[in-house]
Amino acid sequence: MKYIVANWKMNMDSNDLNKWIGGFKEELREIDLEKHKEKLTVIVAPSNLYIPIIHWKLKDLGAGTQLVKIASQDTSVYDKGAHTGEVGGYQLSEYCGYSIVGHSERKESKDIVLKKAEMCLKNRITPIICFVSPELSADYYKDGSILAWEDPSNISVEGHYKNKEAGEVAGGFGKIRNYIETGKKVIYGGSVNEKNVEDLAKVEGLDGVLVGNASLNPKSFAQIIKAFCI
């Protein structure tokens, strides 16, 4: 299974969201997600405010199944209770099957990241656990999770891409597989876009991509999905 994850970060208001959905549905006319559902999982992570809206607006894409899954961009380390401003896994699980935890932009300690991953798993949410170097992969892995390798120096900023060459990504994944065996899911994030995704899709050991800025454009995101449908 390959995983294509859109992390919208703190972007999109309701008008942007509706335009994105309309454009994405147009692009999907050229992509038969139903045909590829056994080998490809598409996941969208909006801001918490819009999770229920995205859930319902994308629910009709599949015949009896939700072909585009929903993720949160974070989850609380707490189960429930007096934690103003926090959103717990038990709440997110109503709409989300996945949650991104430990994104490098949040600058959280390993202990915090792993606590968040544990809360996801407790609530039947698959954590997408971010880590910054191949040597750390085994430290962050938990059974039932997806790992996401992201080098902060390669994350796009305000639409400017700073991507690694595919060969460098391949070398990193070779190192990762020294710590994390094949079968445990590991994806890559770092300025993934429609121009470099075809080369990334060929990297041995890569189980998908975490897409930031490029996922805000439905046409670009669709092109990234297409690269993994071949």
List the helices and strands and how they pair.
Layout: E1 2-7, H1 14-27, H2 33-36, E2 40-45, H3 51-58, E3 68-72, H4 89-92, E4 98-101, H5 110-122, E5 126-131, H6 137-140, E6 146-150, H7 166-179, E7 186-189, H8 197-200, E8 208-211, H9 218-227
Parallel strand pairs: 1-2, 1-8, 2-3, 3-4, 4-5, 5-6, 6-7, 7-8
Helix pairs in contact: 1-9
The backbone outline, from C-alpha atoms, is: globular
Describe the sheet with the most strands.
Answer: 8 strands, parallel, barrel
Distance between the termini: 13 Å
Which sequence of SSEs, written as H and E, runs from N to C?
Answer: EHHEHEHEHEHEHEHEH
CATH class bucket? Alpha Beta
The percent range for strand residues is 15-25%
Rg over CA atoms:
16 Å
- Secondary structure tally: strands: 8
The CATH architecture is Alpha-Beta Barrel
CATH topology: TIM Barrel
**Could you name the CATH homologous superfamily?**
Aldolase class I
Which sequence of strands runs across the widest sheet?
Answer: 1-2-3-4-5-6-7-8
Number of helix segments? 9
| Helix-strand makeup class | alpha/beta
Estimated helix fraction? 25-40%
Mean pLDDT: 89
Summarize the structure.
The chain is 33% helix and 17% strand. With 230 residues, the protein is an alpha/beta fold. It has a single domain (2-227), classed as TIM Barrel (Alpha-Beta Barrel), CATH 3.20.20.70.
Jot down its keywords.
8-stranded parallel β-barrel, 230 residues, globular, TIM Barrel, 9 helices, 33% helix
Notes on the structure:
It is a single chain. By secondary structure, the protein is of the alpha/beta class. It has a single domain, classed as TIM Barrel. Helices cover 33% and strands 17% of the residues. The protein contains nine helices and eight strands. Strands 1-2-3-4-5-6-7-8 form an eight-stranded parallel beta barrel. Helix 1 (14-27) packs across helix 9 (218-227). It starts with a strand and ends with a helix. Its main location: cytoplasm.
